[in-house]
Amino acid sequence: MKIYARQRHRVLQVITRLLVPFVLIFGLYVQFHGDYGPGGGFQAGVIFASAFILYGLIFGLQRTRRVLPPSVLRWLMSLGVLIYAGTGVLTMLLGGNLLDYDVLAHDPLHGQHWGIFAVELGVGVTVTAVMVSLFYGFASKR
Amino acid sequence: MMDQLPALQVMLPMVAAPLIVIIRHPFWSWLIATLISVCACWVSWLMLQQVVDGSIIRYAIGGWEAPTGIEFYVDRANAGVALLVSGLSSVVLVYAYHSIKRTVDTSKHYLFYAGWLLCLTGLIGMVITGDAFNVFVFLEISSLSTYMLIAFGSDRQALVASFRYLVMGSVGASFILIGIGFLYAATGTLNMVDLAARIPDTESPRAVLVAFSFLTVGLMIKAAVFPLHGWLLNAYHHAPIAVTAFLAGTATKVSLYILVRMFFSIFGDEYSFGYLLLNWVLLPSAIAAFVTMSLVAIYQTDLRRMLAYSSVAQIGYILAGISLATQQGLTAAVVHMFNHGMVKATLFMAVGCVLYRAGHAHIPSLERMMSRMPFTTTAFILSGLGLIGVPLTVGFVSKFTLINALMEKGWWPAVVMILASSVMATAYIGRVVYLMLFREARESSASGEGYQEVPLLMLVPMYALLALGLYFGLFGSQTLGIASGAAESLLGGYQ
Fold first, then answer.
1. B254 in a domain, yes or no?
2. Within a domain: residue A123?
3. Pick from B17, B21, B59: which is nearest to A74 by CB?
4. Considering the entire predicted model, what is its pTM?
5. What integer is the mean pLDDT of A121-142?
6. Residue A3 domain flag
7. Per the CB < 8 Å rule, is B19 touching A92?
8. What stretches in chain B show pLDDT beneath 70?
9. How far apart are CA B163 and CA B142, in angstroms?
10. Which domain holds residue B350?
11. A-chain residues within 8 Å CB-CB of B68?
12. Does the beta-carbon distance from A98 to B61 stay under 8 Å?
């Protein structure tokens, strides 16, 4: 199956262009509202990545690769882990145990809030990058 | 800082691995990996100093206390294993530089060393965690990176070996997860100390029994216990030799440690060995392992494969010690974990040196190695003696303890079997030594060039490990002291 064709699938292309921003916004919502409601880094990462995968299915791998090059993905994958682990190291440097968010801010409640926020951000970044590179990996096989 | 040691132990390699992926430089990634591994080794040494008198470190992650939160639980038993893992990783990483440069494409070095550090993270995490589910998580981290490391092997069969290990390893990991799930259903907790307290008066003993069976079989697969060892042979044979040296010394030992921890600390030895008669499962499989595998090892033509079979046999010795369920038996098992880890890593490093120069490890073509590569051959022979268990070597210390423990219990047939398998070990090591020392070279290979000694960066770590092995062979009471303390901690259960 040919997954891209410039002139055909006009309807799909237009709908995708409309849809992608909303998917991205919803991904961000799930990410940053995750500590109040249902959501969090894993779900947000998958939703965020699904926008790129949808774009890739309709507009082809090459154009998606121009938007999000594999080298950037590799970088993002590590960055996410580093954000997570860095939060842990930071709490240790500030005198708490590993991932003890209480010490991150002036009072424990805010500390917990910021800690969860940072850790989930790390998870989200890594999951997005891994999902998209899985898609690249499978889609580029002939 | 001293009370953060358990967390540092896991976080050091975990932070360094993504850093290496970002830096993407072959030399720097090796340097970072080695330095971090040495730091981790230093940390576990400090940790062992803290607990060697019998005290316990309980480290609450996130500040949440134990039954609610996740904790690291360090006592004499696992601090020693952590030191073994991080120490071997450091030594073999120093060694790996040249050997990996030759076999792995330079553009992939950063992935290799990042994978190595993740494997180290997983193995150390499995050892020091006090949470049953975290054992599974760290097991997955170490297994996935191990599959990757094995696939870096230079021939195409490495991919098949890696895939076979992936299938078997996933089965093992799923069994472990199912076991943990049943335990959670039966007791409502995942903390190991809490599990040990709640299992005796659980309302659903059948679920606990199912959990016990799944955990045992799953861990036996990961530890390559005799009938479930199929993945190990190809994996050790085709992986890059540095990876083999690291895994042979650590991966199966860590699984065996978890097995012991589960039998004695979580379920308790009355449950495991009194009620379930586990020693009638473990001992036959142990004996079958060291008899048949030593026998098969004699007929191998590839040095790596021969040592892989020998590894399965040596796991049999450790298992025999475990199946005794006595203080002395467990001491023998623990001390043999260390001794065999050191000896087998040295042997595989020597094989790696042969591979580095000769490009193969075909035993019949190894004649007159002594005159070509004297240092490598000497290291191979000396650690080979340790593997056989010649007096004054580490192998003797652990075999002597094991035989003593078996005689104490009156299991004479097992003693005879151990002696028989030692004779076989003499045969398979002796055959190689004979070829290396005395057999005249054939015309075709006599003029082969490129048979100088390997670079210093490969010899020095190999000899450091060899010296350590010889030292512990001469002064066996030191390792035995720590091992008997570890056995005491394991048999005593959780306080």
1. no
2. yes
3. B21
4. 0.93
5. 91
6. no
7. no
8. 1, 440-451, 495
9. 15
10. 299-495
11. none
12. yes
